[in-house]
Every structure is written in C-alpha cells, then in structure tokens.
Amino acid sequence: MSIYINKLTTNLSKAVLISACSLGLGFAVTANAAPTTNNATITKSSPVFLGDGGNYPFSEAVRVGDTLYMSGQIGFKDGKLVKGGVKAEAKQALDNINETLLKYGYQKSDIVKCMAMLTDMDDFDDFNKVYKAELTKPYPVRSAFGVSELAAGASVEVECIAAK
C-alpha cells in the first residue's frame, strides 16, 4: 500500500506541475523529458536617483537603464507659479520637463509616456494646444485626469517618462 501511495503522490505532483505550466506560465514541459537550460541573460539595472525636490520628499528623476522617470512638473518658474492660466502653466511645466530631460542627457523626442492632471477638464483643449506646440509627432502615449486640486494652486501638472 505504501508503494502505491508514493507512486500516486509522484504522479499527482507531475500532473500538477504540468497543469500549472500549461496555464500560460511560459514553460514547455513534457512528461519524462530531461531538464533544459535557459540561455537567456537578464541584466538588471539599479535605479539611479537624480536631483532632489528641494524642500519636498522626492527625486527630480530616476534613471533605470535607459529609461528616465521624471517627477510631475507644474508651471513653476523662479520659485513661483507663472501667471496666465492653464496655457502659461502648461507651457512652463513642459519647459521644466525639457530642462530635466536635457540635464540628464535626453531630449523631447525621447519621451514615451506623459500623464496630465488638470483641475478643470474644460481646460483640456487649451492644454492640448500647448502640448501639440511643444511636442512633435509621433506623440508619446498619454493619460489625462481631472483632479480636484494640485500643489501650489496649479491648474495643470505633467509627468513624463523618457527612454533611449
């Protein structure tokens, strides 16, 4: 009886493993096949934290490999929010993003993703006019959200990711 239980347990274990692998986990398994080695090389790049948020608890950007993740930017210039509403703020926010890109060896054409936050979705068309003037085709992928409030009373905040 003990031999039968051991054999049953072994066969059930193989069946569970084969079933799990066939559910899309990316493994190819055959019942009595010899193990194979995977020659794929994975290189892990540690994050490099760049700049700082001054008095605020965040980094200006983080580079992982060739990808640059930037903190969100509002329309600050010389420590103050620019005047002129959403168009002026959007232009300054994108100028600030460009400054960060250049500082770390990237350019606007390296941007692959942006996220825009607007305190008034009625400003969406005005924001898009500035965005289209500042960036060129092919445009990065983008999300836009209506939010109730932004730091320093800003109307718009833009956050981007760039990759080489």
Automatic annotation (TrEMBL):
CDD domains for the chain: YjgF_YER057c_UK114_family
GO CC term (a single one): cytosol
Protein origin, superkingdom: Bacteria
Signal peptide range: 1-33
Keyword Signal: yes
Keywords carried by this UniProt record: Signal
PANTHER family to which the protein is assigned, alphabetical: 2-IMINOBUTANOATE/2-IMINOPROPANOATE DEAMINASE RIDA, 2-IMINOBUTANOATE_2-IMINOPROPANOATE DEAMINASE
Family under the similarity heading: Belongs to the RutC family.
Protein name per Swiss-Prot or TrEMBL: Reactive intermediate/imine deaminase
